[in-house]
Amino acid sequence: MYGFDTHTPDSAPAESKDLLQTLTKRYGFTANLHGVMAESPSMLSAYEDIYGAFMNTDFTAVEQQLVLLTVSFEHACAYCMAAHSTVAQMAQMPETELERLRNGTSLSDPRLEALRVFTRTVVNKRGSLDEADVNAFLEAGFTRSQLLDVIVGVATKTMSNYVNHIVSPALDEAFSSNAWESESTSPNQPQRAPDMNQHTTTDIVGHVTIGNGDRKVLVMHDWMGDIENYRPVIPYLNLVDCTFTFMDIRGYGLSSGLGGPYNGDQAVLDAFNLADHLGWERFSVIGHSMSGLIAQLMVMDDRGRERIERMIGITPVSLDGYPATKDDQEFFDAAIMSESVSELAFSALTGSRHTAEWMRVKTNRHLGTANREALEGFKQMWVADDFSDRLASGPVSIPMLVIGGRQDLPGFQEDHFMKTFDKWYPNVSFQYITDAGHYPMQETPVYLASLINAFLSDDSVVQT
Q1: In a 10 Å sphere around its CB, with 0-12 CB exposed, 13-18 middle and 19+ buried, how is residue 13 labelled?
Q2: Is residue 23 within 8 Å of 37, Cβ to Cβ?
Q3: 159 conformational bin, left if phi > 0, alpha if psi -120 to 50, beta if neither
Q4: Nearest to 228 by CA among 359, 130, 360
Q5: pTM for the complete prediction?
Q6: 84 within 8 A of 68, measured Cβ to Cβ
Q7: Residue 295: left (phi > 0), alpha (psi -120 to 50), or beta?
Q8: Which CATH homologous superfamily contains domain 207-457?
């Protein structure tokens, strides 16, 4: 592409000849990537230096190839995916794990999965990690030195991935048995063409999948956080019978780079499109706070299709929006950018029971994980918009569970839920957690997981 030559040692510029000849002897052939890079002696030399440095890290050979494959998958680089799949096989990476890496799905080995998730997070967050990202990596048994080594691996593959995207060298015969085709229409978000119910868009929102069970569960987060909110509850979920995919809503976390619109209908589109991408025919959905409203909109949209099996709303916003006063709305507006107001909001949402340190951590995550346009757009959705007219389109009969926290704000309390959820949905049940406010996944994770597991596994709960 663009007239680049694929050099051999004979045709390469003088300053590239010796290195290209060395690489040719090392591998037994002149790799087309190296032949293209040889156009720039600086590029070829820099790439080989940094690649060699990464090969000298403390990671095992399998772990090294995992990092390089993960970066290449996130960048949708077909050449490097094929090349490193071949090298991974030579390093005796288990075929099942290699196949999962090639599909961008979670690994069965917890340590390898932690490395994959961390590498993916470094790429998608462009290095802007938070404490939870770093701690999860270190708690998996990796060192601080290896944390920095991951960045070396990311830098290595960023160079080759970018060259491949621009030049598109032909795949070498040595890698052809592992040819890989990106299903992405945008380099940072691999996807496959949806085949269900016309929920189509050019972007797949960021997500993390955990578990290997037959029951599929889509999990969404609140307005002031992202999927990291759920980290404390994950160890207690039923990962044997269920597969949980945690979805970062457009404009948040792993999806922070996706543009608008930031509204309920787009969020519904994104959620169903993600389910299509995952190949889920039927699934349950869990929404927290504002995404509890999105979950209801999904259920409304699903009437007549019956893809959604069950719905759980964790301290959910009702379909008619949060009952906010004018002062409330001004307060939420200020919380979008103000650290002090955000800390006050987290305090109010949890009964003013937690420490200043907890509110500060929550605020840092809130203001660091979402772009401002997303916060403003989704605030309009859950505070000002009224979707209750969609109830007129027909009955909703799927089983629903609403989980409330006794320490939460009035709009998330039993009295409001009785006037809304209990009135609208014939197959809804309620559970209330005494020692939690708006964030039971962080305040009471074990009990919340118990409620989720019980509801998802209760075969006596059926659609009416």
Answers
A1: middle
A2: no
A3: alpha
A4: 130
A5: 0.59
A6: yes
A7: alpha
A8: Alpha/Beta hydrolase fold, catalytic domain (3.40.50.1820)
Using CA atoms, how far apart are residues 97 and 169, in angstroms rounded to an integer? 27
Please tell me whether residue 431 adopts helix, strand or coil conformation.
strand
Find the farthest-apart pair of alpha carbons in the chain and give their distance in angstroms, rounded: 81
What homologous superfamily does CATH list for 14-167?
A: AhpD-like (1.20.1290.10)
Rounded to whole angstroms, how far apart are CA atoms 221 and 249? 7
Q: Which DSSP helix (H) or strand (E) runs through 64? A: helix 61-74
- Residue-wise pLDDT tens digits, 89-99: 988 999 989 98
Angle at 391 (CA atoms; ends 389, 396), nearest 5 degrees: 165
pLDDT tens column, 300-317? 988 878 899 999 999 999
Domain range list for the chain: 14-167, 207-457
Helix (H) / strand (E) element for 181: namely none
Q: Dihedrals φ, ψ of 57, to 5°?
A: -75, 175
Task: Determine contact, residues 191/204, Cβ cutoff 8 Å.
Answer: yes
pLDDT tens for each residue of 434-456: 999 999 999 999 999 999 999 99
The residues, ordered by sequence, that sit 6+ positions from 419 with a Cβ below 8 Å of its Cβ are none
Question: How far apart, in Å, are the Cα atoms of 340 and each of 172, 318, 334, 356, 367?
Answer: 57, 27, 9, 11, 11
